[in-house]
Design a protein that fits this description.
Largest sheet: 4 strands, mixed
Shape: globular
Structural class: alpha+beta
Protein name: Oxidoreductase
Mean pLDDT: 86
Strand content: 15-25%
Number of helices: 5
Number of strands: 4
Number of domains: 1
Order of helices and strands: HHEEEHEHH
Organism: Streptosporangium subroseum
């Protein structure tokens, strides 16, 4: 069964399509699931659709490591999170977790 069918990627998308962005694909959802299954303490943060990008979700692990992928609709990532028994937050309401910023700073220091 394809993820698109299982999570309603097309059905839940609705009529809105971001103008300059590619649509969410099965690979995007699978990447978020793989990230969540391979790390501890993962939480999902839904980012709203903008003029240039589709709705995205960030998966943030307990050490601050993160990945961002297109999801097409907040309903899609909520279903993924429910199936994985992980929390999902609206980034407009909660903001990004401090551990993510700390991880980014560690990465910058390690690279320079």
């Amino acid at each position: 069964m394809r993820w698109r069918d299982r999570y309603g990627l097309r059905r839940l998308r609705g009529p809105k399509i971001a103008r300059f962005d590619r649509p969410a694909t099965d690979a995007d959802i699978e990447a978020l699931i793989a990230f969540a299954k391979s790390r501890r303490g993962v939480e999902f943060y839904v980012e709203p659709e903008t003029f240039a990008t589709d709705t995205t979700a960030m998966a943030v692990a307990d050490d601050g490591e993160w990945t961002r992928r297109r999801v097409g609709s907040p309903a899609v990532i909520r279903k993924v999170a429910r199936d994985l028994a992980l929390p999902v937050y609206d980034v407009q309401l909660t903001g990004y977790p401090p551990r993510m910023r700390a991880y980014n700073e560690r990465q910058k220091r390690a690279g320079s």
